[in-house]
Amino acid sequence: MPPTNPSSATASPAASSTPDLPGPGGLCAIHQPNFLPRLTTLAKLFAADCWIVLDDVQFTRRDYQHRARLAGLDEPTRQQWLTIPTHLPGGRPTLIRDAVIDSPALARRRTAGMLRQHYRASPHWPALAQALDLVLDAFDTGETATVAETSTRVLLDLLGWQGQVLTSSRLPARPGRSVRLADLAAATGARVYLCGTGGMTYLDQNPFAAQNIAVVPFRPPTTGIWSSGRRLSALWALAALGPQSMAARLRALTARDVGCGPLPDPTG
User: N or C: which end of the chain has fewer CB within 10 A?
Assistant: First the structure.
């Protein structure tokens, strides 16, 4: 399977070349690399034209950066954590991009086994398994962030997403939580920053308004498959419904929440 927008493949943080930036306009989402991300996270990225991978903030243990909650195919209440065992070379301050996998070969085998155990009964398993091979191959890098980012790209590819992926460590931005996010969004030429409900609780919108960027909250449904969307990996929904059906639902959600009518005026 071709990677999401091959021209924007993540380069080394030490790379000095300027990344290829998207044209002005569109929607931008900023999110840390998550391992087999939750449905709500994947839906937000799917709704955006550009995903900035936030790779240069502190790694957080026991978070979705290195673990995913899998659910039984026919019994979604039966759940199990799948974790990438991770070592932090710099201790607690280690950045996401610098976290390394403990025993990558063993972690790869365990991940492959758990994914097969949970989803091989799905009629969509052949397509999923082929795509997930790319995730398993990423374990050979020994980098937790690479595996997590690859897993998100793979799921977006399965859904037919045509957006661009950039990396925060390669974009100019000032310090300060909201100011930095606004600068990152501005670097892509985005007119809209798509913000999750959690981010809306702390985000200062003034730095965005100063750069003529509107902040739009992304609020997915809370019923049906979405009732567990903030907890379960999106892989369950893809295995249960299939990539095509899931993509249709996400396109409808995007059109309803962020795709209808003119873009909001950030100064209004």
Answer: C
Cβ atoms of 252 and 261 within 8 Å: the answer is no
Rounded Cα distance, 83 and 51, in Å: 24
Question: Using one digit for the tens of pLDDT, what is the confidence trace for 27-41?
Answer: 999 999 999 999 999
* Helices marked H in the chain: 39-47, 104-119, 125-138, 144-158, 177-187, 197-200, 206-210, 235-241, 243-257
**Mean pLDDT of the 182-208 span:** 94
Q: Largest alpha-carbon pair distance within the chain?
A: 54
Residues with Cβ within 8 Å of residue 44, at least 6 apart in sequence: 29, 31, 194, 196, 218, 220
Contacts for 152 with CB less than 8 Å, ≥ 6 apart: 33, 34, 36, 37, 41, 42, 45, 51
pLDDT in tens, 117-151: 999 999 999 999 999 999 999 999 999 999 999 99
How much is the average pLDDT of 164-192?
A: 96
The CA distance from 84 to 262, in Å, is 42
Q: Nearest-CA neighbor of 87 among 53, 110, 67, 59?
A: 59
Q: Distance (Å, rounded) from C-alpha 173 to C-alpha 182?
A: 8
Question: How many CB atoms neighbour CB 249 within 10 A?
Answer: 19
Q: What pLDDT, on a 0 to 100 scale, did the predictor assign at position 256? A: 75
Helix (H) or strand (E) holding 68: strand 67-71
